[in-house]
Design a protein that fits this description.
four-stranded antiparallel β-sheet; 6 helices; five-stranded antiparallel β-sheet
Length: 296
């Protein structure tokens, strides 16, 4: 990997880690979703990065893709609060997550995810098979008495590409890909006391550019242009659009763009049996001594 590229990954990872820890400090019962995500995203920019995706705040049985809405009045409740933070510096990404217990008795579930991640990170060396790492994640979580989420995965990272190369399952897989020096991955073990699977809910707050399509509305054309150029085809939040798009026509424009496949939707994901979920995540560069960019 080019030294300049490596430094960008390191910088993005460091900013992501600082923003993650800052955001964790905001998580308390009664604090608004909007305060946590807005302040954490502001911290990313203050530190010199840009969000690689909207800060996710997913509580209890919500697994991923939840964030604050435009006029969100929700507040944090007791349980397992997952904070997922992504940062890019010139397109190079650091992706990290942590679970905070808010008066929850399920700290062992968080530890199961943490132990699985630590063991997986140690294996991120050239020549290691993805299948071996995935099997270790699954075994560690199951040995702790929980189920891994089988349809949420880690993923490769490349410039302006949040889900590059191959997926990195949290359960045993037939993927025989062998890690190569300089590969960059975000590993994120999810543990649950539910069935071990998430499903789409009816709510969508996060979108991403998919392709250019024709739409009649000026707002639709503006959103598609912002998704492509301002957000660099990375995921963005509905609430990010309110400064430049009329609130009265925002939902209609988003509906048109998703219907025509101009935008990809990221529905909020919920555990199928209503089980609570824990998540931890780090970004790692594959080396003989794996380099974790999101650890301070």
């Amino acid at each position: 990997m080019d030294e300049k590229v490596l430094e960008k990954y390191r910088e993005a990872g460091k900013i992501a880690a600082k923003a993650r820890d800052f955001g964790k400090g905001l998580i308390k019962e009664g604090t608004s979703y909007k305060k946590v995500v807005d302040k954490t995203e502001a911290k990313i920019r203050e530190l010199g990065g840009e969000p690689a995706f909207p800060v996710n705040l997913s509580i209890n049985d919500i697994g991923a893709h939840d964030t604050a809405d435009v006029k969100d009045e929700r507040t944090i409740k007791r349980g397992l609060v997952k904070l997922d933070v992504g940062v890019h510096v010139s397109g190079y990404i650091g992706d990290t997550a942590a679970t905070v217990s808010v008066d929850s008795d399920k700290g062992d579930m968080i530890k199961a995810s943490e132990d699985a991640l630590e063991r997986a990170l140690e294996m991120m060396k050239p020549g290691t098979r993805v299948s071996d790492v995935s099997s270790e994640i699954e075994k560690t979580i199951k040995d702790a008495g929980y189920n891994p989420i089988r349809n949420l995965t880690g993923h490769g990272l490349e410039k302006f590409n949040l889900h590059a190369k191959i997926e990195f399952p949290n359960v045993e897989t037939g993927t025989d890909y062998k890690l190569e020096e300089g590969d960059v991955f975000a590993l994120e073990p999810f543990a649950t006391d539910g069935a071990g699977k998430v499903k789409d809910s009816e709510r969508t707050l996060i979108y991403m550019w998919e392709k250019d399509v024709g739409v009649r509305s000026r707002e639709g054309r503006k959103i598609l242009n912002m998704a492509k150029k301002d957000f660099h085809k990375l995921p963005f939040a509905k609430r990010w659009l309110t400064q430049k798009v009329s609130m009265l026509r925002l939902n209609m424009a988003l509906g048109q763009l998703t219907e025509r496949n101009g935008l990809h939707e990221y529905p909020v994901l919920r555990e199928v049996d209503g089980g609570d979920i824990s998540q931890v995540e780090h970004t790692v560069i594959v080396k003989e001594k794996p380099e974790i960019t999101t650890k301070l």
